[in-house]
Amino acid sequence: MKIGVFVCHCGSNIAGTVDVKAVADQARTLPEVVFASDTMYACSEPGQEGIIEAIKEHGLDGVVVASCTPRMHEPTFRRTLERAGLNRYMFEMANIREHVSWIGKDIEANTRKAVDLVAMAAAKLTHDKGLTSKKFSVNKRVMVIGGGVAGIQAALDCADGGLEVVLVEKTPSIGGKMSKLDKTFPTIDCSSCILGPKMVDIAQHPNITLYASSEVSGLKGYVGNFEVTVTNKASYVDWDACTGCGLCMEKCPSKKSRDVFNEEIGTTTAINIPFPQAIPRKASIDPEYCLKLTKGKCGVCEKLCPTKAIRFDQVDREVVESVGAIVVATGYDLFDHTRYGEYGGGRYADVITSMQYERLLSASGPTGGHIKRPSDGREPENIVFIQCVGSRDKSVGRPYCSGFCCMYTAKQAILTKDHLPESQSYVFYMDIRAPGKMYDEFTRRAMEDYGAKYIRGRVSMIHPKGGRYVVRGADTLMGTAVEIEADLVVLAVGAESAKGAPQLAEKLRISYDAYGFYMESHPKLRPVETNTAGVYLAGACQGPKDIPSSVGQGSAAAAKVLALFSKDQVESDPQISEVDIKRCVGCGKCIETCPYSAIEAIDFRGEPKASVIETICQGCGICTSTCPQGAIQLQHFTDNQILAEVNVLCQQSMQQNYE
Amino acid sequence: MSAVDATELRIVGFLCNWCSYGGADTAGVGRFQQPTDLRIIRVPCSGRIDPLFVVKSLINGADGVLVSGCHPRDCHYSEGNFYARRRLEVLKKFLPILGIDHRRFEYTWVSASEGQKWKTVVSTFTEHIHQLGPAPKINREALVLARTLAAKAV
Asked: Residues in domain F420-non-reducing hydrogenase iron-sulfur subunit D (chain B) (predicted)?
């Protein structure tokens, strides 16, 4: 075998702390290596051309590139090999950037390590063989999980592109957080006026099937052929029959049910439609408060319902949907402000969250858009906004910036002045973060045109005093302590990952970060893809985002799905398991352990043998390390290939290690 | 750090592609300084790691072996790391029977976002191996004798 080795400088990224020339020189002494050189940027066009030239000139059978992580450029170089006429799997990468040059400054030690990594890659390469992909057909249906603005956008774009879409929403209505907002920054557009038509489009689009009050409970399969189990929670109302007339709501005697849509300011009836613009506009019963379900009495709604839609005996049911791709748009949750004991959230009636305030501002909210204190219904004069409640605060485990709170606080200060011209707003802030289009101008308007007083500093304490609240804090620009008597305190709560996000990630086999936000495939270049093929991300489930970014990502995810489905068949990864039929004794251990049921028992001349179903195998190799015979081998990661790396690594010590 | 100053030892790392290898990449991107002793072998899943790879490395003279995969329940292949956990735990108990110091082998879970944790894992393990010192040399005659006895026993 003729191997060529290319050691990349990566500018000074590698060459700065690794003697790349020495690595190339050492590589030349390796067995089967006939050519080795160093190159400035191996991944650049001239770099790749250099590799192609060397392959042709030296008749190379395989290539080792020592550069960055294979998670970044393995596909790039595999394409290069293909352009030179080699099989793309005759390629190995030595990661001498992320794993060497960037983690140590000792040139000597780094160079030694780089030489070892190249030797390991070359040793593995001598055991590599060319692999060819199979093609399999894709099911051109897509599932969107989450019916917030990002999910709505993704679903509409996919549906408009001609795909069949299944939209799964956890709550009884789509709309997400955006539907609860009164106005949106920086244009002061009415939120439900711009979102409402999109929600209606979802309901009316012939290509979209909507499952509300539903959650994804299981996932099987792989890109192009997923089988998703959706659990539809019992609403105790037959939604096919319910017309959303709302008569049941008028007559329901149990009026203490939690009003989730209005952020629990006020209560609602046990049978309810979450809000007037809800999609689907169907009633559901809160089983905790329904008198019929808790005490067996009442049943007024059942008697009154003109379409006889009430079903007290309804139970959760499961539906299995076959789709080819999944867009995850599960959004975010808001920080629990009661964790700041010093602010008295949860104890003082007039210390509320920004989202609750949003409902007070909204004309469709519990107060009809009149700002009234929850405690006594009085109009507040002094309103204090406190920013960064659950953002940029390590002490509550939220060191990150939630991104949109500065902007919505400015918006709320502006709206407050519109609603109550006599009022005075104070905003305690740490820094103003307003980097979007027209954003900085907007926050300035809040200060200059609407007279909101911005105080740079944190609030240390809030305590009640004669029907008002004393807000004590610091003004770090003035270097003084400040005390403000407030009638209403609004806490600008930050964003955190949605409840249950890690559990869903485990079902979908995607990764999440330390805070529960889903991880994109590459933070800059693959922002809506996950590491699981066919699963895409949109919106705030990936990290806090405002409406424009969420919509942008929804469309981006839809574009990725449409691109995936633009082919009738997709190529499978040939790095899958293969059974050596002569070695296989048919014990069936691999069949038992395979998480994908990708191995089946076959009859081979009267003897039981294992056989891999190529399109289902995902290439994890659990079977390979289970097989007592070593008969089933994961291609490209065979025992011999991995042990070749071990052997090279331990060779020197082996010689020294025997007395 | 003592591990960096002293002569390098031979530490082999088996890392799953999706979590820990990504975590090691994240540590690199974050420029988290680490000792240089560890050489990483990339495998698709911790469930692909045959305990024999670990034994073979240690018998061949590696001073330490580190295995790392996705956190349990967070496996890219849904359950590979559960298989890994069982096998590696049994292996840890079994190593002394083979005459190998079980402290030279460790397994951890590091996700792709945990660059800082990976740095800590590498630094701690390397330091630990340096405290144990180089693996004891194998007596060639004893090895030959053992092989002959084993052959006779069969």
From this structure: 11-133
Nearest CA in chain A to B135: A657
Distances (CA, A) of A212 to A142, A376, A395, B18: 16, 36, 37, 33
- Answer yes or no: do A106 and B4 touch at CB < 8 A: yes
* Residue B1, domain member (yes or no): no
> Smallest CA–CA separation between B117 and chain A, in Å?
11
Give the range of the structural domain holding residue B20, as residue numbers without chain letter.
11-153
Residues A528-561, buried b or exposed e (16+ Cβ, 10 A)? bbbbbbbbbbbbbbbbbbbbebbbbbbbbbbbbb
Chain B CB contacts of A618 below 8 Å: 77
For an interface test with A, the pick among B19, B39, B58, B82 (most A C-beta atoms closer than 10 Å) comes out as: B39
- Chain A residues closer than 8 Å to B140 by CB: 658-659
- Please indicate whether, in this complex, the C-beta atoms of B31 and A502 are within 8 angstroms of each other: no
Question: What pLDDT does residue A614 have?
Answer: 87
Residue pair A483/A472 in contact (Cβ under 8 Å)? The answer is yes
Per-chain mean pLDDT for chain B: 90
Structural domains in chain B (count) = 1
pLDDT at A258 over 80: yes
Label residue B6 by pLDDT band (50, 70, 90): low
- By C-alpha distance, the chain A residue nearest B8 is A109
Average pLDDT over residues A257-273: 94
pLDDT of residue B5: 52
For residue B52, being part of any structural domain is answered with: yes
Region B78-101: what's the mean pLDDT?
93
- Nearest chain A Cα to B49, which residue? A625
Residue A302 Cα, gap to closest chain B Cα (Å): 44
Which residue reads 């190249």 in tokens? A118
pTM for the complete prediction?
0.86
CB contact under 8 A, B61 and A656: yes
What confidence score (pLDDT) does residue A509 get? Answer: 86
Provide CATH 3.50.50.60 ranges for chain A: 141-233+316-331+498-564, 335-496
Sort A479 into a burial class: Cβ within 10 Å, 0-12 / 13-18 / 19+. exposed
* Average confidence score pLDDT of chain A: 95
CB nearest to B28's CB, from A98, A509, A626: A98
What distance in Å separates residue A653's CA from the closest CA in chain B?
Answer: 5
Long-range contacts of A589-598 (CB under 8 A, 24+ apart): A589/A626, A589/A627, A589/A628, A590/A623, A590/A626, A590/A627, A590/A632, A593/A622, A593/A623, A593/A626, A593/B83, A594/A622, A594/A623, A595/A620, A595/A622, A595/B77, A595/B78, A595/B79, A595/B80, A596/A220, A596/A222, A596/B77
Q: What pLDDT sits at residue A656? A: 58
Measured between beta carbons, the chain A residues lying within 8 angstroms of B60 are 646-647, 650-651, 653-654, 657
- Domain A141-233+316-331+498-564 matching CATH 3.50.50.60: the answer reads yes
